Model the fold of this input.
Amino acid sequence: MLGPIGNSGLQQTTTYKVVLPFYVYAALSFILATILLLLNTHLVDEHFFHPHTLAIVHSMALGWGTMIIFGASHQLLPVLIEGKLDSNLLAYLTFIFSGIGIPFLIVGFYQFQTGFLLQTGAILVNLGVLCYMTNVLSSIYESKKHDVHAWYMGAAALWLFSTTFFGLLLVFNFTRQLLPNNSVAYLSIHAHMGLIGWFLMLVIGVASRLIPMFLISKYDNKKTLWLIFILINLSLLSFIFLNEINAPSFSLYLPLLISLLGIVLFARHCYAAYRVRIRKNVDNQMKISLLSVLQMLLPKIVLFVILILLPKGQFSKMGILYGFSIFFGWLTAIILGMTFKTLPFIVWNKVYHNKAHAGKTPVPKDLFSEKIYDTMSVVYLVGFLLFLIGIIFSSEFLLKIGAFALVTSAALYVSNVFKTLLHQPKRS
Amino acid sequence: MNVISNDQIKCAIALSGLYNVYDPEIGLNVVDLGLIYQIDFDETEKRIDASMTLTTQFCPMGESINSNVTQSLMNSFPEWEIHVNLTFDPPWNHSRISPEGQEFLNG
Done:
């Protein structure tokens, strides 16, 4: 027996015009960040509060990670919240404010101009994030269905705004005393609000929906996803609290262990989905995305090493290692994989939306070069590992080769993104 | 690919067209994927009522697949009125995939 019929179940997709500018912006930011890394490899032996390090970190966190997640989440929000994106206008404003604000912020950090440049950048980025958060929360409110994925999206948007607003306070705290201590004292809280609250929360929320969908896996375990949601938020809140009361460093094991448990549960969730997948031939984009789930564990291992083995004097270098393994490791790997799972579909939908009934149209994966993608993946992995080893052994030679490989992988990524974006149907 | 129909001959004609409509993500046609549930033909009204589903209710390609199924039926039966309805009751499951489709997915 078939149930009641109708087309109300069809998801309304977000227009490509909203989404594609974010992908272009992110691709250019990625290559910029890797070039800055190549030019500043000596920074690994300096304290992480260095103007150039801050510029690279914000290029990666905002220009690369956040902008591409903005783009992808505007596209995927209907899939995640079972409703439609509330406002295209707010999405455009998110792009305009953030897109103008980020260069101000990066140049401001690079030259360490704590006045006009940094303050203008911080205000514009906050306006962009405010538009994004409003759009996400109003879309969730309008959708009426509030399952666990919607909670991940909503919480991630709230944490993002908390991060950037706190960042704004830190920027103004450089020139006038707004907070009890100087801004450096709050860097760890600011960074972890962004890393755990925004990136980790959003990646788990999105990946827990998309990985089973792409693998055609019927595995579903909402209870585990709720548990992970609680653990990740609890770890972040306890981290902020322990920092605020100046608790001894060994107490930081608690949030670390809680978040580690959340990540392990998420990895187990992905593995369970993978095991019962119907689609046996897993493509390379999915392989690198699944690899990034394992890469989530690397920064946690680095943190354990910091807390257990190192005297406080060497925290700085391990801080660089920790940040590198997050931004150039886990975050970059998942973006490299997911870009070519999402972008070709957006472009395919734009070009072939009503032309696919004749069976002669290319499939989305034909829109980018798999050869360039495979080369990019290998070069990226080599670059990441060489740079990582270079940090550990303070080897300028390995750092330069590793950074050069990362620039090369970014160039290959950009060329493949533009190949996809500029795709035209063949004339018959 | 158990497609219910009140006219097996016309259904075969419809399906031959639908073999050219692909789920773009999976790369498999909608017939072997088992997305087509039912195709009924009303000779007097010249009307086709088709029921189909998607592998997941949240498929971002759903709109495209749905409109291409409609277009394919229009091509196969140009004089007929086409109604394609989407249903998730019963939901799609992997037992609907044809042996050819399963072979394709196994790589």
About this structure: Residues 315-352 of chain A form the longest helix (38 residues). Confidence is low (pLDDT under 50) at residues 1-8 of chain A. Chain A has one domain: 16-352+360-421. The CA atoms of residues 115 and 175 of chain A lie 7 Å apart.
